[in-house]
Amino acid sequence: MKPRARKWWLVLHVVSSVGWLGVTIGMLALALAAFDAPALYPAMSLLGDVVVLPLALTALATGVVLSLGTKWGLVKHRWVLVKFALTVVAVVATTFSLRSGLHEAAASASDGTAVGAVGTDVLVAACVSLTFYTVNTVLSVFKPWGRTRWGRTP
């Protein structure tokens, strides 16, 4: 990949990743507040659909493009492989678990029924997501563990 193109892909990756992290921190704050104000769940559901999912998919796609288009490779370095795995798990969990939990909580809050354990699940999901993104950030900065067997020269 040419340096100018790499820089633009990197900007898009950093912006989407930082955005995903920021929205997750906001969702964590809202999840805590929603225990006293369940009316927040519909807003959280909207954020999950309109903001979190596009940012997650963009971060994943740009990360793959960068890994394949640079010296780091997707499977050459352990830290890149771990970041990729954590991101895939986070995107799948966001798509199929977090969003459905947010929709369920929003529906319960709108009906006036008790949100119950779904609220706790949303809070736990935000905590797990924040942990994943923090680990990915640390991996990006420190680049630990060296090369994989596919990244070693023969």
From TrEMBL:
Keywords assigned by UniProt, alphabetized: Membrane, Transmembrane, Transmembrane helix
TM ranges: 43-68, 80-102, 122-142
Protein name: DUF2269 domain-containing protein
Species this chain originates from: Saccharothrix hoggarensis
Taxon lineage: Bacteria, Bacillati, Actinomycetota, Actinomycetes, Pseudonocardiales
